[in-house]
Amino acid sequence: MRIFEQLESEVRGYVRAFPAIFDTAKGSLLFDENGNRYIDFFAGAGTLNYGHNHPAISEALIKYLQRDGIVHGLDKATVAKKAFLQKFHGTILAARKLEYKVQFTGPTGTNAVETALKLARMVKRRSNIIAFTNGYHGLTMGSLAITGNNFYRDEFFGMRSNAVSMPFDGYFGPDVDTITYLRRYLQDASSGVDLPAAVVVETVQGEGGVNVASVKWLQDLAQLCREFDILLVIDDIQVGNGRTGSFFSFERAGIVPDMVTLSKSIGGGMPLAMLLMRPELDQWKPGEHTGTFRGNNLAFVAATEALNFWDDEGLTQAVQHKGALIEQSLTALAARYPQLDARVRGLGMIWGLDIPSRGLAREVSREAFERGLVIELAGAEDNVVKFLPALTIEEELLQEGLAIIDAALAAVVERRGERIRGAA
Ligand SMILES: Cc1ncc(COP(=O)(O)O)c(C=O)c1O
Predict the structure, then answer these.
(1) How far apart (Å, rounded) are the C-alpha atoms in residues 136 and 208?
(2) pLDDT tens digit string along 243-286?
(3) Where are the domains of the chain?
(4) How far apart, in Å, do the first and last CA atoms of the chain sit?
């Protein structure tokens, strides 16, 4: 580990939570340089919905490289891009009767978000954007301005400009309808909140602590946007690509956003990001928004192969089945330790175990890692253990990982026994 400490910036994050030198990976298993085995409940923060090194994806990549397929192409037309667009159109868009134009942005999620903000502002000729408490949209300046968590942001990086934060569903508890609250601000010309170009929202907040917006809330938000001529942008970077069961996370609400950001798992493990927009919003002039790494061709090859998972209902059914197993296991766990006042939240295969006692979730993640499970945290105070396994994880491995969490929590409760009882 010395070379990382010597040379790599202090900004290192995950290496501190998971102090091993990882070497190989297959499906939902990771191996470090000493051959130690870890079950992966983190899936590259939602990038590996189809697991590590899926054989069909690896094979397609190897074949493409072996035939000297173009890797870097800026936004030129390539065979790999054509194949991806055809597959994405047929399997995802047309199958859902969705009409979107596709824009490939720089290869990370935040690039897609920046592009959405810029396009919304350009089309609507308004600068304000409304986002939500606990939202996470990336860390470049525009995305950062609509990201809630202060940890990532300080005033001296730049002000949170042209962005307003409004309460997400449930922010004030179950009895306050936050759409009514938002509506009041928009109706009142003297509220101090400018009519925004767009509302940007995650249907399930991932980094924010696995907060699930209800179907009704999403439908009301879509209706509000229509009424006030505001563009609705769904950030599906973390919970799209099947994480909640359907390909897009907004399908459960039956709404059609004006724009959708996609990244992470769309690339089948390779860096890829894109913005979907209703055709009439595509008001760019040629070359007006560019980037050197828009649409890497290796990512297109991997992404096209990954979309084969959506040829039938199999993956959606698997997500529902395995999601229910996770929910059952966490609900039982929370019930076993009432003194922790732990809450279980989630949908599909993103679940959170919210443990309010300070630092306890972190201890559980550490303890789990020592027992061979990689699992990360979310929430404003890192108070939520976030379950984000690959959608393709074998049921046996899933159960093994859940048993590790069980044992890790028992060990932490045992260690902290007196303090926890005292706090309860
Ligand atoms: C919902 C959401 N939007 C945007 C991003 C930013 O993506 P990236 O880290 O690739 O810039 C993330 C990353 O976690 C995310 O979860």
Answers:
(1) 6
(2) 999 999 999 999 999 999 999 999 999 999 999 999 999 999 99
(3) 2-53+313-423, 57-310
(4) 39
Rg, the chain, Cα only: 22
Give per-residue burial for 340-363: e unless 16+ CB within 10 Å, then b.
bebbbbbbbbbbbbbbebeebbbb
What does CATH list as the number for 57-310? 3.40.640.10
Please name the residue whose Cα sits nearest to atom 16 of ligand 1: 238
Token match 């409760």: residue? 413
User: What is the distance between the alpha carbons of residues 48 and 27, in angstroms, rounded to a whole number?
Assistant: 9
The per-residue DSSP string of 89-104 comes to IIIIIGGGT---EEEE
**158: pLDDT confidence band, cut at 50, 70 and 90?**
confident
**What is the CA(412)–ligand 1 centre distance, in A?**
31
Token representation of residue 132: 């939500």
Of all protein residues, the one whose alpha carbon is nearest to atom 8 of ligand 1 is 109
Write down the CATH superfamily of domain 2-53+313-423: Aspartate Aminotransferase, domain 1 (3.90.1150.10)
pTM (global) more than 0.90: yes
Q: How far is the CA of 136 from the centre of ligand 1 (A)?
A: 7
Q: What is the largest CA-CA distance in the chain?
A: 65
